[in-house]
Amino acid sequence: MPEPVKKTVSAFAKKPKTQVAEEGATVVFETETEKPDAKVRWQCNTKDLVSDDKYVIKADGNKHSLTIQAVTKEDGTAYAVIAGGSKVKFDLKVKEKEVMEEVKLELKEKVKEEVKEKKEEAQGGAGDPAASDPAATCTVAPAEAPSPAETPAAADTTPAAPQPGANIQAHDTPGFDESQAPDMKTDLTGLFTEKPQSGEVTVGENINFVAKVNAASLLKKPTIKWFKGKWMDLASKSGKNLQLKELYDRNSKVYTFEMQIIAAKPSFAGAYRCEVSSRDKFDSCNFDLTVHEARAVEGFDIRAAFRRTSMDGSEEAGELDFSALLKKRDASKSQVKNEPDEDVWEILQKAPASEYEKIAFQYGITDLRGMLKRLKKMKKEEKKSEVFLKKLDPAYQVEKGHKMKLCIDVANEDVDVKWLKNGQEIQSTGSKYIFESVGNKRYLTINHCSLSDDATYTCVVGDEKCTTELFVKEPPVTITSHLEDQMVMKGERVELECEVSEEGATVKWEKDGVELTRDESFKYRFKKDGRKHVLIINEATKEDCGHYTVKTNGGESMSELMVSEKELEVYQNIADLTVKAKDEAVFKCEVSDETVKGIWYKNGVEVKADARTNITHIGRIHKLTIDDVKPEDQGDYTFVPEGYAFNLSAKLNFLEVKIDYVPRQDPPKIHLDCMGHTADSTIMVVAGNKLRLDVPITGDPAPTVVWTKGEKVMTEGDGRLHVESTKGHCIFTIEGADKQDEGLYSVIVRNPAGEDKADINVKVVDAPDPPSAPRILSVGEDSCVVQWDPPKSDGGNPIIGYVLERKKKKSYRWMRLNFDPYTDTTYEAKRMIEGVEYEMRVYAVNAIGMSCHSAASQPFIPVAPTSEPIGLCVDDISDTTISLKWRTPEHLGSSELDGYGVEYCKEGSDEWVPAFEGLTERTSVIIRDLPTGEKMQFRVRAYNMAGPSAPTSLAQAVTIREIMQKPKIWIPRNLRQTLIKKVEETINLVIPFQGKPRPVITWSKDGEYLNPKQVSVRNSDTDTILFIRKSERKDSGKYEVKLQIENVEDTASISIQIVDLPGSPEKLKIMDVWGFNVALEWKPPKDNGNCEITGYMVQKADKKTMEWYTVYELYRRTNCVVADLIMGNEYIFRIYAVNMVGLSLEPCFSADSAYIQKTGFEYKPPTYKEHDFSEAPKFTHPLVSRSVIAGYNATLSCSVRGIPKPKVTWYKNKMDISNEAKYRMFSKQGVLTLEIRKPCSFDGGVYMCKAVNASGEDVVECKLEIRPPGTFPQAQITKEERDKQMNKAD
């Protein structure tokens, strides 16, 4: 799941704004920072500014200002102010004072001249007033320019019209205040050295847009593209109204690209984009064009607003355009709701034409013209089809990768259909397309829809077809692999990597809310590799610390980058040396960084290499070697690492050798300054290093040396141990010392003159063992408290502290939390993201080094406790119980709510007792077994993973005692009138009431107790329910409910009416017949169904056909006259009774019939003998024997005639095959066809067709041979056999 994004906070309390100034003026930009000690930098075109005669930079606490003296035209550019991780951009626009005044005067003169000319034309009686008004005519843009349907309306305001026909640069347009327009510019950190600016133009005038690119650092000529809107490439539209130019200056190596719009039209207005690319470099810029109508200064002719959109010049041609009468509105105020689940096609169908381009921008439509053409076709009214019972919808929409199923209903179940895609028939290959036929339904299923499936689909049946549009919607780009937090050292390379769901997707990188771009120093590099996107920072600095965010149109991910200064660690310090004349002195040290260089000093003077002095640097080791030591080499030697504020020092002592007369026998002597078990005599060695004991000895003759450890004599039997004796020295060496080599060593020297002994205490130290796995004591919103146990072994050196690391659960990168050792075993880790799972581990540190890391802690999620529950109140109370209720906390955080805990205590006591074990998930609870009459206080806490929230308590203590409440019945509004139900319907009456203690409830009907077998009653503390599963007529009546508490009672009554269908009317009589009329009369039914009879339905029927027709519906009277009867016909009648339930089950029929007498003579038609057209079946064309290939459909055809139409039956080897699914039989105009689907070898044999009718029957047969693919028929049918079959058919 994507990590929550932390809200970035700006470092500025007040930001500088864009200003417009005239040449020579002084401009002051002011800003205020949140912190008074914040460092502020001012930039001009991404270059830092310093205070000088031109620029004056001042800082007073948190107030900062930039003053620009004597502004010139070159100062009109982009500026920025930076504080911490926040950057604010602003512009300075410089205008020429004299030029602006001249332009204004010239415009005023032009306006006066145009007003004067229009007055003269009006007085001279011009034929058409609209012809003299420039705004009265409007021409449609030609094919080269964008169509009106693709561009939004022009700007809201119309400035004074400049000189007609003049070429106007976008940034020099009079009356255009760029400070009010949206700032489309960014710092010139990309390929552009000059970007095209937004501009305004009047209809009929020209305007130029200029873009400049510096090609000095490019390896390839830049390619530029101009776009209108989001998708329209203007290179193909170049022509009469649009010209594109390109210039190259070889001296400055600058490309100049121009786009000139000639004779601007209102449809040209809108948003434009310029893109430039060169190999792997890319930059783009957006700008706007506003086209104003040329308006008349004096007088307004309403006819001028009724313009025609035609180009042939005819006054009557084209369609009227009323757009000039529309009230323009501010586009910035209109808001489009972004609802990703809406169907774009439905939005376009309902939206007006003026909103098409806005919808296209919002939903990312790349082919608006094509969609509008489809929309136009679909708005045509479709004729009713005889072939299709149900056609395809005009359009469908499906998400990319999903399945789409198209369905139609056809009138003929046996008809074949064809599916077309963009006019081409779809073939059933693979699993992409699946065709299905179920009854009269035909399905086309498209699996795994892609952008190539976005097309027009057509279903063809015979000569008719139905068409639909399928739109494939691309899903939003999501982040599948999120950014990870990183901690690096200063100067290291940083790579922030994420992975998105789609290849080639566009992402945006931000640092602390500010978008990152490629700057001149290539500080940031953006790399794409398939679905992976990488942000590369070369040589990280402290300024690069912050939160980095990568955004797509479907999500975002954030990580934190921490940059720390490098700390140089000293692995081996230089030691003091005491050497004799002619010996070699070597000073050696080892540091942690191999790249660090250093300088050697002697008594504060730099040491230079010479014949005796050698300075080396190999890896982490620095050496100073002095050969043939002399007395003047004695002194203090110092090594200073470059770039670090510390040094390493040691002293070189020169040992003078005095030669005295020594007798031949001299007892041995060990020359050690200190011996024994004191701290000074203890030699410490790091585990794994070499232990070398060099002991000076004297004696004549040369003494023998014995090394012991305890009582054990140390010999060279072990490969790690070496004992060596030289003149004046005895050396004891152990390679790779470990803990078992620790102890007291003794050296004994003997010669004939005596012996001497010295003890040396050796201590082996090592890095400590890892601590135990850390335990998470508690968690907060963005922090946790972790605790661990010290390591079992400190390595022989005391623990000086601990180092902690954390990582996200799904990540592999550990981030260090502290660089200086932390002395305690409890640590509070902060700056974590709430809701993200983390792990912790610990290192132990002593003077030797750092231990291995401990085992990782159990995963945990930083979450904060919820806020306290709200609205705690008493819902009910009795002598021993209380009912409490509350609402959920306002803030739940990222963790789920585990439940609520309820506690209570007696008033005046601090001992809170849980009301029940565990937690409850409900927001109401009943606490039982409370002491009667005691004053109690109650409180509620909400619990989540972080623990309990703050408690919510009642405002005051509550006395546990039931309160007497009078009984009161609350009749629902719908039961205050008679409740009407139909027979067998369920009756469920819920009657709420109040009253304490619980009242006694009694139900009765018409003064009698209810029958429990028919009626069920259920009671609770707050309501009573009357339930009848199947109501009957006898359940009608007046029900009474009574509540009684001691001597107080309350009653209420409810009326129920059970209704049923009425009975049949009675005694329907024909009272009179005259002319074409019949008078009827009847009596009401005896059973009205327990409700009012609302009317009667009167029907008539001719005795010949007995088809009933309704004469009257809901007729209120019990007599009527049926008119407009047909003479010569005899009629009968029937009557239904109608009430609120419906018609009576049975009608009442008239006992007699009414005959309508004819008038005049009776016509007797002549009689004719009916001709017999019957004919026995006869096959006019026989079946022909065939030989077909297995696996391919085969057909057998013949033709037959006969009257009446004979019944046709097909046989194979004299077996009826009419009901087998493998065969299909067709009959059309007497031609009979048998289709055998994909025959196999078992389908061969003799096939027979038999036709039968009442006049006789006929039979024809043939042989069918099935051969394998690639073979020829074994026997050809001879001409004689074919003639025999023909003769047999005759």
UniProtKB/TrEMBL annotation:
Keywords: Actin-binding, Cell adhesion, Immunoglobulin domain, Muscle protein, Phosphoprotein, Repeat, Thick filament. Residues 770-869, 870-963, 1064-1159 form the Fibronectin type-III domain. It comes from the Eukaryota. It comes from Oncorhynchus tshawytscha. Residues 182-290, 407-461, 475-569, 668-761, 967-1055, 1177-1265 form the Ig-like domain. Pfam families: fn3, I-set, THB. Residues 128-166 have a biased composition (Low complexity). This is Myosin-binding protein C, fast-type. Belongs to the immunoglobulin superfamily. MyBP family. GO terms for molecular function: actin binding; myosin heavy chain binding. Residues 116-184 are annotated as: Disordered. The gene is MYBPC3. PROSITE patterns: FN3 (PS50853), IG_LIKE (PS50835). One of its GO terms (biological process) is sarcomere organization. Thick filament-associated protein located in the crossbridge region of vertebrate striated muscle a bands. In vitro it binds MHC, F-actin and native thin filaments, and modifies the activity of actin-activated myosin ATPase. It may modulate muscle contraction or may play a more structural role. One of its GO terms (cellular component) is myosin filament.
